[in-house]
Amino acid sequence: MKKIIFTDKAPAPIGPYNQAILSGNTLYTSGQVAINPTTGDLVLDTIEVETEQVMQNLKAVLDAANMTFDNVIKTTIFIMNMGDFARINAVYGKYFTEETAPARETVQVSCLPKNVNIEISMIAVK
């Protein structure tokens, strides 16, 4: 059975999807971009600020499912420019320890929704 996870502390979906689905003990988050959930505005000042907003949005979704970044087992990162990888990784890395860091792939793409520079989705397990 699946349970829809929703929080107003992360951006509301802008299409026919949910912020996350909990199936059994596994949480599947939708990709998050750098939308400030309070204002609805994109946060694109720098790639570091943009990545921080994405991670805060994911944190809010994890919180809504009573999970933390320690529960994350896999992430997928889509970026517009692989040249930003080190700067993105520096922000992303603050949310994990080496002991609990998830599996991950990072893929450069040609375009993302709303012309953002980064989108991240996660799978977490209780």
From TrEMBL:
It holds the Pfam family Ribonuc_L-PSP. It comes from the Bacteria. GO terms for cellular component: cytosol. GO terms for molecular function: deaminase activity. Belongs to the RutC family. PANTHER family: 2-IMINOBUTANOATE/2-IMINOPROPANOATE DEAMINASE RIDA (PTHR11803), PROTEIN HMF1-RELATED (PTHR11803:SF58). NCBIfam families: Rid family detoxifying hydrolase. This is 2-iminobutanoate/2-iminopropanoate deaminase.
